Amino acid sequence: MNTITMQMNADKLIRSALQEDITSEDITTNSVMPHFLLGEVELICKGDGVIAGLAVFERVFTLLDENTKFTFHCQDGDNVKKGELIGTLRGDIRVLLSGERTALNFLQRMSGIATYTRTIADLLKDSQTKLLDTRKTTPNMRIFEKYAVKVGGGFNHRYNLSDGILLKDNHIGAAGGVKKAVQMARDYAPFVRKIEVEVENLSMLKEALEAGADIIMLDNMSVEDMKEAVRLTAGKAKTECSGNVTKENIAKLLDIGVDYISSGALTHSAPILDLSMKNLHAV
User: Fold this and answer.
1) Are residues 154 and 171 in the same domain?
2) Which residues pair with 196 in a beta bridge?
3) Is 144 strand, coil or helix?
4) CA dihedral angle for residue 267, residue 268, residue 272, residue 277, rounded to 10 degrees
5) Judgement on whether residues 72 and 13 belong to the same structural domain of the protein
6) Residue 59 belongs to what domain range?
7) Which of the chain's ends, N or C, has fewer CB atoms near its CB within 10 Å?
């Protein structure tokens, strides 16, 4: 995540998280540390995984005090091991204490998503199928969670509702059918936008192909029907497999031949990577 992206999009969300945790003051820290004292603390990994979100972790503290200094021994995307020293922080002990939980919440969540994504992306590395995330993200955490997916080796689906056209079952119902929905979307949207249609059976697939859909999402279809859908599509549109995809069941989808597999589990079911700030001392 570059500096421009951080300042334009992430800073306000990081500030909001800090404000959630410190509504007026950190009463505990102010009780035991009433004045400035320079200190140092270690960031330690407590499990094996993929680190993601170091810039966000750092930004939590520099928003509190721009003089906080960091030394990291790895970078986003690196594999880390239990007990590994990820880095050290040096600064006002009050800042190190007050920012600790918010910073760790971001880093643990993002690293957990990157770790879970990596386990699934590795299963697809010998295929032409790309692993995608979804919009099933934690409110106000999307920019961080989708970044973590990329760090883990996945790819981002549309970022939000303004980013692409995806006609799902309720859109199709509202429009009165697949063909009508595709035509209405094509009439309304800029010509540079691709149109993706969610289908639940081969009949809907054929209708979507006849309507000229650019991408077809095969939602919760059987493996046999998805294979037939890929055969019928035959390059006329890109294909995406979706519906309760997890690391436990993705193996059965590997030889279907779809262009993309999307998984909401990447962001809604990934456990955190346990990290801790330890050994705080004055310097």
Assistant:
1) yes
2) 166, 215
3) helix
4) 80
5) yes
6) 3-115+271-282
7) C
Phi, psi of 270 (to 5 degrees): -75, 130
Q: In this structure, are 133 and 230 located in the same domain?
A: yes
Closest Cα to residue 5, out of 109, 143, 145, 138?
A: 143
Q: How far is CA 138 from CA 112, 114, 142, 175, in A?
A: 14, 15, 6, 29
Cα–Cα distance between 181 and 167 in angstroms, integer?
7
- Rounded to whole angstroms, the Cα distance separating 265 from 136 reads 8
**192 or 79, higher pLDDT:** 79
CA atoms of 203 and 18, how far apart (whole Å): 51
Q: Residue written as tokens 């404000």?
A: 19
CATH of the domain at 142: 3.20.20.70
**pLDDT, tens digit (0-9, with 9 covering 90-100), for 231-256:** 999 989 999 999 888 888 888 898 89
**pLDDT band per the 50, 70, 90 thresholds, residue 166:** very high
CATH classification of the domain holding 67: 3.90.1170.20
Give the chain's end-to-end CA distance (angstroms, integer): 31
pTM of the predicted model as reported, rounded to 2 decimal places: 0.95
3 pLDDT higher than 70:
no
CA 266 to chain centre: 7
CA 140 to chain centre: 12
User: How large is the average pLDDT for residues 221-226?
Assistant: 94
Cα distance between residue 153 and residue 50, in whole Å: 10
Q: Name the packing angle between helices 11-21 and 54-64 (round to 10°).
A: 60
Task: Write down the pLDDT at residue 205.
Answer: 97
pLDDT recorded at residue 282: 98
Sheet containing strand 38-45, strands side by side: 69-72, 85-92, 38-45, 275-282
Question: Helix, strand or coil for residue 152?
Answer: coil
Tens of pLDDT, residue by residue over 123-137, are 999 899 999 999 999
| Residues with active-site annotation | 101, 136, 168, 198, 219
